[in-house]
Amino acid sequence: MNTVVRLAVAFAAGAAVMYYFDREGGRLRRARVRERGGDLRHRLEEAAQAGARRRAERTHGTVMPERTRVRTEPVDDALLRDRIRSRLGHVVAHSSTLVVDVEAGHVVLGGAVAASDIEPVVHAVAEIPGVRSVDNRLSVQAPERAASRH
């Protein structure tokens, strides 16, 4: 190292020693450094643990076979009917006109819907946990007549 660099390093080291070992403010400065160092160590440990958890969860998801939603206990028919009604509200515009009957997990759908909505309705109902089968008795809704102009 050349002489100028050595002199600058020595000056910086001397200034740091004077700054941290000052009689009046040095104790407070050292305490702040310890506190920040401990806080930084704590944050680094938390980040490392979170990263390890994410990697473990990702590995678990990759290794485990695709899970199917199988319920071992039967779902109450009234609860299942409510779940179906709720789901239908997200699939079709006028879900209140549809008839939903549930008996021991077997669902009977009735009412009139647009032809393009029949398949999404049946598919949405079949995916709900607790549904064993879907009997599609939906009919195609007649297209609305064009409004007359006066």
Automatic annotation (TrEMBL):
The keyword Transmembrane helix applies. InterPro entries: BON_dom (IPR007055). Gene3D superfamilies: 3.30.1340.30. The chain crosses the membrane at residues 6-22. It comes from the Bacteria. Keywords: Membrane, Transmembrane, Transmembrane helix. Residues 76-142 form the BON domain. This is BON domain-containing protein. It comes from Agrilutibacter niabensis. The lineage of its organism: Bacteria, Pseudomonadati, Pseudomonadota, Gammaproteobacteria, Lysobacterales.
